[in-house]
Amino acid sequence: MPFAHRLALRGGIGERPLWNRSLFKREPIVYAPIEPRSLPKDAEAMTETIPADRCRLVLIAPSAPDAADAEERVSAALAGGDVASLILPAYDLDEASFQRRAERLTPLVQERGVAVVIAGEPRIASRVKADGIHVEASKAELANTIHKYQDRMMVGCGGVKTRDDALELGETQPDYMFFGRFGYDTKPEPHPRNLGLGAWWSEMIELPCIVLGGADISSVEAVAATGAEFVALSSAVFAAGVDPAEAVRRANSILDAKAPRFEG
């Protein structure tokens, strides 16, 4: 399975890339083994059906004020089919409240064989034994986070608005690049800028990318067409009146039918 598809799987991370000091796709990437993590038996069975050759789903947890409601909707979504990882933003929660939510959601999600990525709070990510950290910060701050944490967990990068931003931040060698902004998936279709950045990045750069989809499940097709390894969904799955399990099932069905297949 290509690195980009092991990247966001708990227990499925079997190798990491050794960089050739260039982000650009000029030389074959070389892999080195790292110790795989163990999974519950039901999660191990789930990994057998992971689509290895197409764009996969990343979910962004809802900003529900009721923690129990958020947990119920996330659980329902994960029951709907393949999900690579869940990104958990703090939204408007204070640090203590965010940690309590992360403490409850992290094991619930990990038991399904799905990675948990904590947005913006490395210390909380460590405390709750998350699988990754999502950073939207300066190049220096991102580099510092990578230096301190990347030997223990994934460190991904977001907050990118331009190609220059992406290349500058990419020099720090995060585990992925995220194109989009949490909470801005309010229109049915993905933002054109995010699609453009995703298509350019996927064509030129070795590092995997995640592109934010729109508020309609069908938007996964447009993201997959860019060549992005992952499509992120939030409102399309967790908005009021949406059945999260059915939304995930439909998204995977569209990707199975329409997403381009990766080579290798």
Fold topology:
Elements: H1 3-6, E1 15-18, E2 30-33, H2 41-47, E3 56-60, H3 67-78, E4 85-88, H4 95-110, E5 115-119, H5 122-127, E6 132-135, H6 139-149, E7 154-157, H7 163-170, E8 176-179, H8 192-204, E9 209-212, H9 219-225, E10 230-233, H10 235-238, H11 244-258
Parallel strand pairs: 3-4, 3-10, 4-5, 5-6, 6-7, 7-8, 8-9, 9-10
Antiparallel strand pairs: 1-2
Helix pairs in contact: 3-4, 3-11, 9-11
Sum this structure up briefly.
This protein is α/β, with parallel strands linked by helices and 264 residues long. It is built from eleven helices and ten strands.
CATH fold-level topology: TIM Barrel
What is the H/E order? HEEHEHEHEHEHEHEHEHEHH
Broad structural category: alpha/beta
Whole-number tally of structural domains? 1
Our count of helices gives 11
Give the CATH class. Answer: Alpha Beta
* Beta-strand percent range: 15-25%
Distance between the termini: 8 Å
Helix content: 25-40%
What kind of oligomer do you see? single chain
Tally of strands: 10
Molecular shape: globular
Output mean pLDDT.
Answer: 85
Order of strands, widest sheet = 3-4-5-6-7-8-9-10
